[in-house]
Structures are given as structure tokens and as C-alpha cells.
Design a protein that fits this description.
- This is VOC domain-containing protein.
- The chain has 3 helices and 6 strands, in the order αββαβαβββ.
- By secondary structure, it is α+β, with helices and mostly antiparallel strands.
- It has one domain: 2,3-Dihydroxybiphenyl 1,2-Dioxygenase, domain 1 (Roll).
Length: 125
């Protein structure tokens, strides 16, 4: 699966996800006249379909209130606290700091470039 995101500030988004988050670049194409695409390897993808009630439950556990947009992107990382600090230093807004969830993971929520809301998660068990 490939998630395609239109980024108004393309250079900022590429620098954030490739250089700070560390997603390796698979392909870059410059078609001219400003038309560019960078494909990053972010690991395997799953499609999580949730009811509004489940989204509210997740938001309440991670953030303390309902904040999710219709689409949220989750990245598994080795160290949520460090990655949260790195992404915040690179311009992401921390919505909720690393929080232990009822399903035994450490999750943080951020507003990131390309108008994406991110969950960073680290499995604890």
C-alpha cells in the first residue's frame, strides 16, 4: 500500500519525513515545472478501519480528548520519547507527549508537515 500525500511545502515535508524521521528514499522524480515526487520507505502498511467510538477511545487514551482528523498516520519507532523530541525540534507540534496506553504501548501525538497528524508508538511488551 502507498499513502499519497499532497504537500504544499514539499521541501519541508521531505526533509521532515526523510531526514528527521529517517524514512529511506526509494525514488525521486523531477518532472519539471515544479512537479516532483519523493517516495519514502516507511515499512509495511496496514489499513486500520475504526468506528468513531474506537477513534474516541484511542484519542482519550493517547491525548485525553477527541482530536483525530479523518486520517491519522502511525509510525512504530524504537524510542518514542527521543523521536518525539527530534520531530518537535524539526517543526512538528506535540499534541500529546508520550503516554502509556491501555494496550501496553507508549504513544505520542503530533501535528506534522503536509497537514498530517501522527501517532508515534513503541510496543512495550
Amino acid at each position: 500500500m502507498r499513502l499519497v500525500v499532497e504537500a504544499a511545502d514539499y521541501d519541508e515535508a521531505v526533509a521532515f519525513y526523510r531526514d528527521v524521521l529517517g524514512a529511506p528514499e526509494e525514488l525521486f522524480v523531477d518532472s519539471g515545472d515544479g512537479a516532483r515526487v519523493t517516495i519514502l520507505d516507511v515499512g509495511r502498511a496496514t489499513l486500520e478501519l475504526s468506528t468513531p467510538e474506537q477513534v474516541t477511545l484511542i484519542d482519550t487514551a493517547e491525548v485525553g480528548r477527541r482530536v483525530s482528523p479523518r486520517l491519522r498516520v502511525a509510525f512504530e519507532v524504537a524510542d518514542v520519547a527521543t523521536t518525539t523530541d527530534e520531530l518537535a525540534a524539526a517543526g512538528a507540534e506535540v499534541i500529546a507527549p508520550p503516554t502509556r496506553t491501555p494496550w501496553d504501548s507508549l504513544n505520542a501525538r503530533l501535528a506534522a508537515p503536509a497537514d498530517l497528524q501522527l501517532t508515534l508508538f513503541q510496543e512495550l511488551s
